[in-house]
Design brief:
By secondary structure, this protein is mainly alpha-helical. Helices cover 91% and strands 0% of the residues. It has a domain at 23-55. The chain is built from two helices and no strands.
């Protein structure tokens, strides 16, 4: 009977130890999740800004008139 209590006590100690380790890991994972979410938000903003800059640059490029190019090629 005493050995059964000792066995149960050992199992409870292992369970407590595992629970503690899992809580620590869970806390670390939550912190990492918050950091990664913030980083993701920052990257999305940077991508949006880069997209806007590229769109602005593309809008500043001169427009090609393909009809005039065709006429110039025929005259040559």
């Amino acid at each position: 009977m005493i050995s059964e209590f000792e066995l149960l006590s050992d199992k409870v100690e292992r369970l407590v130890s595992l629970t503690h380790a899992l809580r620590l890991e869970n806390g670390e994972l939550r912190r990492n999740s918050v950091e990664l979410s913030a980083e993701n938000k920052d990257m999305q903003q940077r991508m949006k800004e880069a997209h806007q800059r590229v769109a602005t640059l593309l809008a500043q490029l001169p427009q090609e008139d393909t009809k005039e190019d065709d006429v110039d090629e025929e005259e040559a």
